[in-house]
Amino acid sequence: MGKPFYLTTTLPYVNADPHIGFALELVHADIIARHRALQGDEVFFNTGTDEHGLKIFRKAQEEGKDPQEYVDEYAAKFRSLKSKLGLSDDLHFVRTTDPNHKAAAQKIWQFCYDKGDIYKKKYKGLYCAGDEAFMKESELVNGKCPNHPTMEIVEIEEENYFFNLKKYEKPLLEYLNKEGVIIPEWRRQEAINFVRAGLEDFSVSRVKEKMPWGVPVPDDDSQVMYVWFDALTNYISTLGWPEDKKGNFKKFWEKGETVQLAGKDQVRFQSIMWQAMLMSAGLPNTQRIVYHGFITSGGQKMSKSLGNVIDPMTIVDEYGIDALRYFLARHIHPFEDSDFTVARFKEVYNANLANGLGNLVSRVLQLTERHLGTFAAIDSVKEIFESMENYNLQAAMDHIWSRIQKLDQAIADTEPFKVVKTDPERGNKLIDELRVELWLIAHRLAPFMPNTSRVIQDAIRANKKPENLFPRKE
User: pLDDT tens across 344-368, in order?
Assistant: First the structure.
């Protein structure tokens, strides 16, 4: 077994159905996890659901449900993404309402409190209910939160516990100054600039009377933990911290390589607040956090009011799991915002899957079925694309598709279907070369399109043309 590799997504709020943005993060993470497993690494791949906080409490009230009943229903929807998106069988799923997670959140609180980094004070500040976070006036755009421009900023005054974030300005800068702790590089500079501008201590609790749905603060029944403080702890609670009975925390977080995936709006939460919490608790920092952009639709941010929300399950139902995985890997930029429309998806599907890969597989396997015997499987070379090591899935997919196009061109140039009639020995050799290259392409596709990869390799082994992999859509 290779080296331990820990990978996690963020945890989505369960106040709405799964959307295409979270499908992007899950699929990208799954591709990375599969890639590392193929390299021989021992992978711990984590996702789950964030189930506390004011938004969820209010949603449950709106629907006339007990909060636990409400989050149970939505957690089941998110858990079902494992099969619906073709995710790895050994995916770990953590819920912030799990008893072991609550215990871990209380333990990290206690560590930070004992360090003198959590204190209580009265506070008045500007609050965004969308982010469930207090904001500086300088962070607002036209008086609104840039992440939730349609929501009103509310001034809140109450007595809460605070985390002494200012204390960690220097340690955070030392952490952030290491190349590679944030990908892409410009997000690292963004985090550095944020810290250099001066940090403010952040609230880590809410008054229980106003918001009872949260993890209880140790030794204070009047307060519950701020949802971010609670939720961020999932990255280690999923490993069994603090008891670590199975040794996963020591193996993967302390001795392994740790990578987190998150959206570009998460930099201050994941690379600043969470890292300061770890420092305060005396725990190792995350080694690398990879930030992706947003998916837009028709050049606009997706919203129900605009009617441009993309349901990933509708795409899967019509086109199949691997078609969606292909699009998210190759046609969504790994770090920048990218556009996704159903029309664009259909265009790409027909051009690159139906007419491209699907047609190529049919042509090659039709030739091998007619002219060659069975295939002896090749021990494929375990390639490590430089682009995958840089978390650039798009570049890795472009590399694979260039090989698909070259193989298509080789058929056009050598015309083995003609040569085999006049010179069977040479014709068979040409066809066998096509088959070997198709096998290697299928191997390279395994992390990205696992079912397609398996179907192609099974068909090559059986020496039989498969059913149409990607039927053309009119």
Answer: 999 999 999 999 999 999 999 999 9
Tell me: domain 4-292, CATH 3.10.310.10, correct? Answer: no
Domain map (residue ranges) of the chain: 4-292, 300-462
SS3 253: helix
Place of tokens 């791949």: 45
Residue 308: which pLDDT band, with cuts at 50, 70 and 90?
A: confident
Task: Point out which residues pair with 48 in neighbouring strands.
Answer: 94
If we measure between CA atoms, which residue out of 405, 398, 395, 323 comes closest to residue 356? 405
State pLDDT tens for residues 152-194. 788 777 899 999 999 999 999 999 999 999 999 999 999 999 9
Average pLDDT value for residue range 56-65: 90
pTM for the full predicted model: 0.91
Asked if 185 contacts 392 with a C-beta cutoff of 8 angstroms, the reply is: no
Q: Name beta bridge partners: 128.
A: 133
Q: Which whole-number Å values give the CA distances from 110 to 2, 22, 243, in the listed order?
A: 35, 32, 15
8 A C-beta contact, residue 220 and residue 300: no
56-70, 227-241, 297-311, 314-328: segment of lowest average pLDDT: 297-311
Element (H, E) at 74: helix 67-79
Class of residue 155 by CB neighbours under 10 A (exposed 0-12, middle 13-18, buried 19+): exposed
Are 92 and 47 contacting, i.e. CB atoms less than 8 angstroms apart?
yes
**Interatomic CA distance for residues 257 and 260, integer angstroms:** 10
In angstroms, how far is the first alpha carbon of the chain from the final one?
47
DSSP string, 323-358: HHHHHHHHSS-SSS-EE--HHHHHHHIIIIIIIIII
Q: Which two tokens stand for residue 128?
A: 């965004």
407 vs 414: CA distance, rounded Å: 11
Placement of tokens 């609180």 in the chain: 109
Identify the DSSP state of 95. E
The CATH code for residues 300-462 is: 1.10.730.10
Instruction: Please name which of 141, 110, 119 lies closest in space to residue 128, comparing C-alpha atoms.
Output: 141
Contact criterion met (CB below 8 Å) for 189 and 172:
no
d(CA 140, CA 126): 10
